[in-house]
Design a protein that fits this description.
2 copies of one chain form a homodimer. Chain A has 596 residues and is of the alpha+beta class. Among the domains of chain A are: 7-139 and 149-153, Acyl-CoA dehydrogenase/oxidase, N-terminal domain (Butyryl-Coa Dehydrogenase, subunit A, domain 1, Orthogonal Bundle); 157-283, Butyryl-CoA Dehydrogenase, subunit A, domain 2; 441-588. In chain A, 56% of the residues lie in helices and 11% in strands. Chain A is built from 20 helices and 12 strands. In chain A, the strands form 3 sheets. Chain A has a 5-stranded mixed β-barrel with strand order 4-5-12-7-6. A two-stranded antiparallel ribbon of chain A has the order 1-2. In chain A, a hairpin with a 5-residue loop joins β8 (233-235) and β9. In chain A, α6 (105-118) runs antiparallel to α10 (342-374) and α17 runs antiparallel to α18 (553-570). At the A-B interface, α9, α10, α11, α12 and α13 of A face α9, α10, α11, α12 and α13 of B. Chains A, B: One of its GO terms (molecular function) is flavin adenine dinucleotide binding. Chains A, B: Residues 283-449 form the Acyl-CoA dehydrogenase/oxidase C-terminal domain. Chains A, B: It catalyses: 3-(methylsulfanyl)propanoyl-CoA + oxidized [electron-transfer flavoprotein] + H(+) = 3-(methylsulfanyl)acryloyl-CoA + reduced [electron-transfer flavoprotein].
């Protein structure tokens, strides 16, 4: 088996850190306590371990390919997608009224991690479909919802997000695709979209493209962008498929990674105009798209955790098997498995602690999402929404950046074999690199954290989080263990670094925006580092208590060791980040443009 | 043009930091002052910019391939190698008596950077040939030197290093290839070698394999390994080529990067035995191989700098062209080239300052090599040799690890385009990953730094270097500029962190070897970071003085800005590394083996 889902760690995080049981107080989640979660996760693990994971390497070797406007996916993908859909996995988090299961995101996120560990390229199709469903749920008309959502949930159709154009990447103000109103209320869409994930493929009967375009006469910039449904095949009144729409895949990209996932160039309207239907109101497209994007950003953060977990498992397995050199501590007389060497342990612990820290962070964020959307109390919803929004750039930005470090170490543990493609470790390294780019680069996440989530409220949200950290530190202070003491020391330093950085950023006026944004990515990395560390601090205390109570001592001992490693090797990066942000802003933009 | 050699920065480093002019006091380098260096570098730049660099992307697209035991290199490689050889570039650093130019390594290293920036896959062939020449110069008989070296220098033949076997990677004690003495004084070699760079190719008439093997009855472990010359074609007494030797390439690897460089599996002796000739004495093979390896390790460090420079140039070019979003400082009204965005600047400055820092470090090390090998005074030779040996793991380990960071940022600057192979940025990311692995992984370099260069002398060498840093700090203290003050502050913190770490490591007894080695790679990264920063500190002072004297103000201003950025954004990592090394050793090995 090439992948074993970390069900136990997921359940520990859900129960002990994310408060899954308390979510059952929300009426619609009443049945989704830890036992249900366990049953769902175990079922999910089976599908991913047995069916989807074995296709991962195959997808890298035999990627999707384009021929005459059609895209053919890796052998086995179509059948696996059928099994995935028939198992009801696409509808996991979506409303029962449309055929979904209505599970909390807290459980859904763990399932999302599994499918992405199993096969990131494959998982992108459901991930994008989730986004399309969310957008239609939020902004679609009753008719649109009834027409599209059930088919998206049952896997007959899949969804795409069409934002990027050659001149409009991070900057959607530059979108030029145009929509011409038709007498029947529909629109004709004309333009080119690039980087469209699963923009064309052979795994479903139809593809529902959600497309950003400008209606003629709309305002310039992002305030003139509308959102349209453009189905690949037109949908008849009875739900059956009609004519082929004028939306065609003219090529797919040749990428460094996630090769099995087709990245399409879509041409709309080259043969008279693609028929599109306005979603919601004109010129509010970006707002709707942000709903999709926030869901997708969280999902991409989970992809980072997922690929890190898979890389970790592979590295552990190799480190146990590969015999090379004598251990420096003399514990083995001859050559030993390399897992006995301290630096291999350091690499594995770095991989493990980063992955577990980000998993904890993401599941805590998912629980906030669930409360924000479904809690009966409005104030609770509001608070959770604010916390969730603060967490999204951290989950996306930090988890994906850490996945680059983890997959690099994964190759490194393998030595020369890691560089050989047949080994498989290199694939994770190549696959992971897209994660810091799509759905908003790390810099875009950092802009969000600095702009909307620090400058706008003068750093209040960060300080509220810091107060919670201080409370955790106070709890740690009541404990006598060396692990708790080490964690407390490093968490306090991390918190102080974070607050100092937030204050520096919040203190910049309009005249010094460059200084505020010069450290945006280090600030994001600092915030992610400290918030993930905070969750491991909480985990450490739970584990100490469980251990004292004699519960699952191997797991709890491992959790304590992992948390302590994070404190001593990862949280210790905080001071350097603070120094760069607070004292190094000017040197970022000092070099004259023509001196580069 | 896709690559422009940084001749000016190279000359600045040679002259102002590496003391090239003082090397001219050494008789054989009397003619190789800065003017000669400039002439050589400009000539070298032409060949690499015009001929070799354009083949880099082609090599990735159309790699070397194997057919029926033969390896065919990328179209254009053979012709380019001919030009390279005819230009005398293979012999640059080798003795004139064998047809070389006898230039100092200080100049050779800069030329090495250029060819590796131009085309790392191509450059590996000369790099390995250099290693073979060095080994034969050191340990070969007069006859062997006369037979092989001139042909290796004139490019008729190339050289390889055959160390690795499937079960023997970092651990050469496990080498099993055997050598059977023959009545005529030769040996028959039997065994399988893997990961042999340019182990088979079509660019030269013959290939001189240098092969580690065990003579029957030799001691176990590394003390029973001997070094043999195994030519692909036998060499007749008149120097012409004779029969094909029984050394055959049975396959080449399918790798993540450096695809144009064939990585061969070589089978020795499957048809009766490959004829080999002992180099030097029996059982001293590892000692000779280390000569080659030290040269090759330095060369691989330079490869890191080289690929970083190329990635930097590409990223700058894209950042100047790509228009996207309004600058946060309002300096441009509409969408602007992304080089106007602070985070893009941060990425470019990180790339630039790491590259320049490592370049300075490597050229200073190269000058120490030159003095160590050729200075008339024995004590000077000894001191320089000790310093050079201390620097080799830093140049290799730190420059290659930084190249992963730089090439990652190179992709990141390109956004989504970076992930598309046609853009070319992804190739550097894939290519660079081998550098932290071959010629001794980063952990092997770190073991060398901890074991031979810190534990053995109780940290004396590190403290001697620290004393030199303190002297640089004292010089910085006499200056009034903010840049000098920032550098002094961070360099002092870096030095203190380095000394504390060295003391911690040197203080570990036999009972705590795990603790000494747990932080080996962080210690290597810390040492490299601080020593490269030290060179930039020296550069900063020179640049301030030149600027005051009105000399080349754009270059000097840029050097100051780059050095200051390094101080504030890279040297600031030192404290966290110290904390992990000194206070985090136990947590590295705390997790039970069966809990991974």
């Amino acid at each position: 088996m090439t992948y074993r889902a970390p069900v136990k760690d997921m359940l520990f995080n859900m129960k002990e850190l994310a408060g899954l049981e308390s979510l059952t107080a929300i009426p619609q989640f009443a049945d989704y306590g830890i036992d249900t979660a366990q049953a769902v996760l175990e079922e999910c693990a089976k599908l991913n371990e047995d069916v989807i994971a074995p296709l991962n390497f195959e997808g890298d070797k035999n990627p999707s390919y384009w021929k005459d406007g059609q895209v053919f996916t890796t052998p086995g993908f179509k059948q696996a997608f059928k099994q995935f859909a028939e198992g009801g996995w696409q509808g996991l988090q979506h409303p029962p009224e449309f055929g979904g299961q209505g599970l909390p995101k807290t459980i859904g996120a763990a399932c999302g991690e599994m499918i992405n560990s199993a096969n990131m390229s494959f998982a992108l199709c459901p991930l994008l479909t989730d986004g399309a469903i969310e957008a239609l749920l939020t902004a679609g008309s009753d008719e649109q919802r009834a027409t599209y959502i059930p088919k998206l949930i049952d896997g007959s159709w899949t969804g795409t997000m069409n934002l990027t154009e050659p001149q409009a990447g991070s900057d959607l103000a530059l979108v030029r695709t145009r929509a011409e109103p038709q007498p029947d209320g529909s629109y004709k869409i004309f333009g080119t979209k690039i980087f469209i994930t699963y923009g064309e493929h052979d795994m479903s009967e139809n593809i529902v493209h959600l497309v950003l375009a400008r209606v003629q006469g709309a305002p310039e910039g992002v305030k003139g962008i509308s959102l349209f449904i453009v189905p690949k095949f037109m949908v008849n009144a009875d739900g059956s498929l009609g004519a082929r729409n004028d939306a065609h895949c003219v090529s797919i990209e040749h990428k460094m990674g996630i090769k099995a996932s087709p990245t399409a160039v879509l041409q709309f309207g080259d043969h008279g105009g693609a028929i599109g239907y306005l979603v919601g109101q004109e010129n509010r497209g970006l707002e709707y798209m942000f709903i999709m994007m926030n869901a997708a950003r969280f999902g991409v953060g989970v992809q980072g955790i997922a690929v890190a977990e898979r890389a970790y498992q592979k590295a552990v397995s190799y480190a146990r098997d590969r015999v090379q050199s004598r251990p420096v501590d003399g514990s083995v007389a001859g050559s030993a498995a390399i897992i006995h060497h301290p630096d291999v342990r350091r690499m594995l612990m770095t991989m493990r602690s980063l992955t577990e820290g980000c998993r904890a962070m993401s599941l805590v964020a998912a629980a906030a999402y669930d409360a924000a959307h479904h809690h009966p109390d409005a104030e609770t919803r509001k608070q959770n929404q604010a916390f969730y929004e603060f967490m999204v750039p951290l989950v996306k930005g930090y988890s994906t950046e850490m996945s680059l470090e983890v997959t690099d170490l994964g190759v490194q543990v393998h030595g020369g074999m890691g560089f050989i493609e047949e080994t498989g470790a290199a694939q994770y390294y190549r696959d992971a690199k897209i994660l810091t780019i799509y759905e908003g680069t790390t810099a875009i996440q950092a802009n969000d954290l600095v702009g909307r989530k620090t400058l706008r409220d003068g750093g209040q949200m960060v300080k509220a989080v810091a107060a919670q950290l201080a409370a955790t530190e106070a709890e740690l202070a009541t404990r006598s263990s060396a692990a708790a003491a080490a964690m407390r020391k490093r968490l306090a330093q991390g918190r102080e670094a974070l607050v100092a950085s937030a204050e520096f950023i919040a203190g910049q006026g309009k005249a010094s925006m460059n200084a505020a944004f010069a450290g945006s990515v280090p600030y994001l990395m600092l915030a992610g580092n400290v918030v993930a560390g905070w969750q491991l601090a909480r985990a450490l205390m739970v584990a100490e208590d469980k251990l004292a109570a004699g519960e699952d001592s191997a797991f709890m001992t491992a959790k304590i060791a992992t948390a302590r490693f994070y404190a001593e090797h990862i949280l210790t990066r905080a001071g350097g980040l603070r120094d760069a942000i607070v004292e190094g802003a000017d040197s970022v933009t000092a070099l004259a443009l023509d001196s580069f």
